[in-house]
Amino acid sequence: MTTEPVYQSYDWSNEGYFRKGPLESSKRRQYAIEGMKRELIFNNLNDPPMTLNPIFGVNMEANVKRLQKSANLQTDGVIGPNTAKALLMRRILQWQTKLSIPLNLVCKQLSLESSFYGACYNTTNDHSYSQLHDPLNLRHPDGKLVCPDGDLSYAYRPGVNVRYCGEALKRNFEVMSRSATTLATNEEIWMAAVGAWNAPAWAADWIAAGLPKEGGGELSEWFAAYTGCKTRFEWMTKYTNMVLRQPC
């Protein structure tokens, strides 16, 4: 019996791990470094004190080592996927608890979206950990802009990404609840909420039909080739399984 490999959305080796050094040329990586400093402070790791700028200096390295030691990771002061996940975990647990989100879904969704690479970006204008789409025009449910005053650096802050991911999943759950049959369990509705992150209309049809593994209409030729699926419900099933199998 073979085990299907866990889907990894981003290969850190493409741009490299984060480590002590001079100011990087990539603006996205600069934003990510400053965002990670803010998250270290959120984790009460600011001794020696860091300056909130985009440079990975000796004080940031020392605080990263403290984080790694507390998480039983190699204490090399370098931020890779495991250290990045450890850095975000306190905030992830905070929002999962606050919003009553089960199954560690915020962690798993972030893992699928970016493999916890803070400078992650794709050509459809999706940014950072949660792949915030068009963040300069994006708002939280309370109406506040994700990036106040058009400052794109906000989109690379873990606090913004984790909050947005949690709120989006919770909002999806509420919407999917209205489409679900009376026999649907909460766990099944949460599965549809995960699917709705990728394709809201398909996820609503999927939960209304009882989460079948096939059907819901054929995929376009391009999307079928891209996903390896033939129908919308087959893709919803595959996508949610990809999320659930993330190592959180």
Question: How helical, in percent, are the residues?
Answer: 40-55%
Order of helices and strands: HHHHEEEHHHHH
The number of strands is 3
Determine the structural class based on helices, strands and strand pairing: mainly alpha
Q: Sheet bearing the most strands, described?
A: 3 strands, antiparallel
Using the CA coordinates, give the radius of gyration. 19 Å
What is the number of helical segments per DSSP (H or I, 4+ residues)?
9
Outline the low-pLDDT stretches.
Answer: none
Mean pLDDT across all amino acids:
95
Distance between the termini: 24 Å
Order of strands, main sheet, comes to 1-2-3
Q: What shape does the CA trace take?
A: elongated
> What is the beta-strand fraction?
under 5%
Provide an overview of this structure.
This protein is an all-alpha fold and 248 residues long. Strand 1 and strand 2 (126-127) form a beta hairpin. A three-stranded antiparallel β-sheet has the order 1-2-3, with no helix packed on it. The chain has nine helices and three strands, in the order ααααβββααααα.
Characteristic terms for this protein:
248 residues, mainly alpha, three-stranded antiparallel sheet, 9 helices, 3 strands, elongated
Q: Could you outline the blueprint of secondary structure elements for this entry?
A:
Layout lengths: L26 H16 L15 H13 L10 H18 L6 H10 L6 E2 L3 E2 L4 E2 L24 H22 L6 H13 L1 H9 L12 H7 L4 H13 L4
Helix pairs in contact: 1-3, 3-4, 3-5, 4-5, 5-6, 5-7, 6-7, 6-9
